[in-house]
Structures
1.
Amino acid sequence: GPKREETTSLTEEQITSALIRALKSGERNVCFVKGSGEHLLDDTGQRGYSSFKDLLERNNYKTREISLLEKPEVPSDCTILVIAGPRYDYPEPQVQAVKKYLEGGGRVLFMLDPPLRMGKEEVSENPGLTKLLADWGVTLEKNLVLDTSGIGSLFGLGPEVPLVANYEYHAIVREMKGTATAFPIARSVETKSVDKVTVDKLFSTTSNSYATTNLSSATIRLDPSKDKKGPFNLAAAGTYNTGKENQNGRFVVVGSSDWVSNYILRFQGNRDLAMNMVNWLSSDEDLISIRPKEPEDRRLTLTRAQMRTVFYTSVVVLPLVVVAAGFSVWWRRR
């Protein structure tokens, strides 16, 4: 019989989500690799991915974490594999499992941070993964991109969070024109098409950005005479030709993993861009432009003095005014 989906409320988000669930056939499983210091799905802290998990599940994607250390093989029911900011090196069997999966027609989202050496902020260079991506035409530069435009300060962001408003014409970013996105602790990405792989740039920083290669100092100082000036490409999308019709592999590479963390996922277009990537990877490009809008958080924040004013006005002053008006009417009618 016809497929039926129920919604818990009549909000735009719930209705659109129900339509998406009805239109899609089969399950879409997004599998997040764990075991090498990646972001965790159930982590509700600032750098956790619990909000990203909720976003995916509201759009009819099932999520789970998998370990490639225990068994270096990507489960066959994984629609998309996500490698989200590993802090430690992937051993060769794990790299080969990712390679086999994608070159067999799988879909992978790579989000790899700069190899920082700043005390607690220590991230491995992950040579196995970076070489694999280089073989597919994507070079992850060993740098840290800084935004010196000052625009980020309007949103409470520092120079270590480059803003992006320059998008290419790929399906992932075609609808993003005029929308800003933010990428904390990001590295630049270089691209070229190679045998069996076609690679496209996705978006870049403004010209008011620099890339420093000094990744071991707690204090970042720009040196315009040495540090390269932007704009810098921060992400790429690639297609691997398997030779089989409608079974090509797809991948997206982003030089930052924090951009979908809890503390910044709601920034401007980050949420939309994240879902665009996921929809393109799962061959659901038709859903890119019909994503439900998230209800705005319209909280009213009052100081202690303002709360006292509201209390006395509503509980004391207004009732007294009503009583006085009533007494005045009674007195005149005597």
Note: The first strand starts at residue 28 and ends at 34.
2.
Amino acid sequence: MSEAKQSLIVYSDSLDPWLNLAAEEYMLANLPPESVLLFLWQNENTVVIGRNQNAWKECAWQQLEQNGGKLARRLSGGGAVYHDLGNLNFSFLASKEQYDVEKQLSVILEALKMNQIDASFAGRNDLLVGGKKISGQAFCSGAQADLHHGTLLVQADLDKMFTYLHPARQKMVSKGIDSVRARVGNLTDFNDRISVSMLWRSLEESFARRYGKSQRVASMREITDGKLDQLYAKHTSWEWRIGRSPVFDVSFKEYFEWGEIEIGLGVRKGRIDNCIVFSDAMDEAWVRGLARAFTGLCLDLGELLAAVDQLAPGGEPQVLADLTVWMQTWRI
């Protein structure tokens, strides 16, 4: 892999999740070739759900909004997260030839080590310190560039997090942990002197070490000035953030090691005229592809299994095998 011709650090001075996510989407679509960009940002009192999640089930979004918070939906897969000013968000945006998750993770791990914190990558998307989750990450593939982003819990309000998020009970049981509270921690639990500003500076320094001194540091507004109206309208819209609470003729739900999945089918005259797949699986594009593959088919298990066989399993090979075995238990 060649060195990036351009490395750039972009910071946001906005605490608006809709604006920050609109900017992230714009930068993903417009990243120059052979470039790597680190975007550092924060949101205030926000729940961000994954691309394919059901807002009505994943979080107490109505209570959140009554308390002055905001619900947002991101481009990537994965589960719901809570953001406040004790949390720092990072986004790596890299052209296809420069995208390297291991190298990007090393930026995070080195920044934490600068603050006397040893972290490790675990599971499908977690960073752990002392067995506690201090970061969740998610991924998205664009046409010309890819996205790897996540949270870093510095001194987040965990009480609010537990109030607003609704992790599946089965998910906690599968991990052998009775409570979500037991597996989440703040970085201040391990270094009481660390702050968001300290970690921010450490990330900038670590990024410069790994990618060469950044050619420049820019504000989000400088990069996106006057270009976010349509994307901001999308990210604020009811249709993108929440959508309707669907009623299906047939639905199936299961939890696997790679995530939770719920498939809802609307059926008219024996044919599927509407399919929605909710999931916190990391490969968001594959989930959307499954919904498209089922739409228009007869409500026949053989046809549905044949459609699954035609789908590439994406980045998680176990997904296809698990889905096929599970579908064979459906009664339709």
Note: The domain at 6-241 is CATH 3.30.930.10 (BirA Bifunctional Protein; domain 2).
3.
Amino acid sequence: MLADVTEANDLAEGAMGTPHIYVHRVGDWYPLYMDPDNERRLRAFATVTSAGLVTEPPSPDQLVRDLAGVDGILSLNGIGAPEITTEVLRSVGTVRVAAIAHWWHGGHVPARAMWEAAGVEVIDASDPVTEAVVEWVVGTAILGVRRLVEFDRALKGGSAWAEPGRRDAGLLGASTIGIIGLGRVGRVAAARFRPFGARLIGYDPWLPAPDAAALGVRLVGLEELLRTADVVSLHMPPTDATRGMLGARELGWLKDGAVLINSARAALLDEVAFIAELRSGRFRAFLDVFDDEPLPLDHPFRSLENVFITPHIAGDTTGMFRSCARLALDRLRDYFAG
């Protein structure tokens, strides 16, 4: 694959007056982002050195050679991003901008710090993955509040009218939505819930109350949120301060009949306490993330009737990958167009 990189670089050196873009390695993920339309979009405004399909990490010396004369970096995801260090960029000396198509926390947090330390402007263009996750969140909230999963199971199980309780379902617009974490995804979730007319409350100790109010969200304590929300949606990142933040005590605060949605990280929940509380049948859970992935075949989540599970696909669709790449390419094009 490194030979392919060198060949592409040789071709790029012959073109003058257009930006030179380097695509760092993402291995087998590359075709998910770069379909023929996106390949044409990239080459319509830039010359290209692509290591996209490379699977093995290059040495710093190889990266310096590959990045020779490069003006911008296309970072399709976090694989390979931290390999482009501050030292590599300073040795190259020409890179001005990097566009991130699909933000991967583990790869892009260190990469962004290194790139900015080298004076490179970093553009986060990963809005499509946020929108995809929020679409899943809103969809599962509707499934939960309207009790559509239970009605489906009842009818398929032979019930004529899903009685008793056929008219006990709620309405999203009449619900209180509790958002735990009002960062990137939580903010968009608030914006998508608001048109339904739902009451929005939030817990985020790092967000000033005026900022939350601008989102249409009233900040409350964690206990108040869990005791009053009809729908609780988790959007905190996994940190030392948030791991296991919902344990036996906090899960006991959830109101009966609540809908708990987790598209963030399983580490936010104490799994042992979570399973014990789910077995009580007091509330329903919609989960896309798990401590062990893929979810073991004998895991209790697979058999609990009040748990709806999906295989970590809230933000994982073909359209999302291509949209992320397309937006990053458009941002790079606009940057160089001035």
Note: Residues 6-15 have pLDDT under 50 and may be disordered.
4.
Amino acid sequence: MPENSLHRCLQDHFGFAEFRPGQQAVIDCLLAGRSALAIFPTGGGKSLCYQLPALLLDGLTLVISPLIALMKDQVDALRERGIAAARLDSSIGPGEAQIIYGQLAEGSLRLLYIAPERLANERFLNRLQGRPIALLAIDEAHCISEWGHNFRPEYLKIARLAQKLKVGRVLALTATATPEVGTDVRRAFQIGARDEIRTSFHRPNLQLNVTSCPAPQRRQLLLQRLRERPQGPTIVYVTLQKTAENIAAFLAAEGVAAQAYHAGMKTEERTAVQDAFMKGDLPPSPSAWASTRPTSAPSITTICPKPWKTTCRRSAVPAATGRMPIAKSWPAPMT
């Protein structure tokens, strides 16, 4: 495809004048009919690598992602742009699911997002049989590798599924692939070495600060940091749902507008909190789930009250836009 046509599609549908590093190389590979592995930092623009080709290829783009909140963000944004997209996950009711299945049957969907667990649903797989799937995009693709820290057995089924459904090409995406993991992913999906596109993980828009303090003082230090900083959206990363609830209650009692967000909440509650946060109506948000989820909110200061060792590998998580400066403060326990 001529380069000016690609840029016109980029501008018309997504509002960007230029591609970010690595994006066009991945897209060119897919449009040439080859599978690819994209290893970009969080916020490097991985989603555009399948969203734009989905508009240019004949057939469905099937996106597999383990993150419901991220699927919701992307589907909402695509629909706002007039792009036919849908998601099937545990938060979708039977009535809405039937509408989506109807769109799938009539071929009107460009992108369909699913969780990997749906691949165990035979009825769903039967609905896919015979449908032209131009592109299969696998987010968090490192989960297929036993070398990876987030190995998920259900991901092993995806490679076999791609062959069974006669998928046109595969795009594997990850932000956390060592060379061994990258080799595993390429082997699973028969991706050539030349079609592994890896970009720099240097993030000039991230500032990392660590404050050492005893564990009992972390809450007060967290409160102090929140009061010192300018008003704006904040995510407080924690590891347990109960901790998210406790931190939110503590902050609220101190006069800080905060709510918890985690997988144990009812769908309506979780959706309301997420929507309010994305609109900027909810500044701080203690969260048990967000440590692996990027967000498209424009500018976030992240405060993480847990040990540095468990968080350093996730240091780029909330930098999804890559455009606004993001400060991070890590109240870590003394060692």
Note: The longest helix spans residues 68-80.
